[in-house]
Amino acid sequence: MTAAGMSVARFEALAQTFGGEIARWPEGEREAARALLAADPDRLSPVLTEASQLDRLLDLAPAQAVDAALLGRLIAAAPRAPNATRRWITGLSAAFGLSAAALAGVLAGISIGGHIQPPAVLAPAGQAEVVTAADVSNDLQDALEESSAL
């Protein structure tokens, strides 16, 4: 890096890209470029002169008008935006499908859960064995009568 944070290589790259007039360069680079040019005008002035010659040659070239027929064909060939209604229906059908799959999973879990007994818990050696079980096949009244009989 040299004066004001810009290297000579960066200055040359900007001159090749944006031309010999610093006013055409990106706004954030102009001040550093002017400071570097003031610090080393013998080396950097020829860079700007060469870029300015190319700018003049390019400015002499006639500007081409866009053919209206070509522009119309390009616009007609451009892909169309998808229909909002179709996107909404597609999203809704996906949501219904996922909801149905989730409901099926819940129902399967409930139907299988009624037939499976939880495993008995084994107590470590030296402690009384405590077994907890839930009887889901009987209704609530039978369970209450059983516990009062104990």
Describe the protein's topology.
Elements: H1 8-18, H2 27-39, H3 41-60, H4 68-77, H5 84-113, H6 140-149
Helix pairs in contact: 1-3, 2-3
Mean pLDDT comes to 80
Instruction: Count the beta strands.
Output: 0
Percent range for helical residues?
55-70%
Order of helices and strands: HHHHHH
Assess the beta-strand content as a share of residues: under 5%
Distance between the termini: 91 Å
> How is the main sheet built?
none
Whole-number radius of gyration? 41 Å
Number of helices: 6
- Helical/strand content category: mainly alpha
Q: What is the 3D shape?
A: elongated
- Note poorly predicted spans: none
Can you offer a commentary on this structure?
Keywords: Membrane, Transmembrane, Transmembrane helix. The chain has helices spanning 8-18, 27-39, 41-60, 68-77, 84-113, 140-149. It has 150 residues and is mainly α. The protein has a domain at 3-60. The chain starts with 7 loop residues before the first helix and ends with a helix.
What features would you highlight for this structure?
mainly alpha, 150 residues, single chain
Q: What is this structure, in a nutshell?
A:
This protein is mostly helical and 150 residues long.
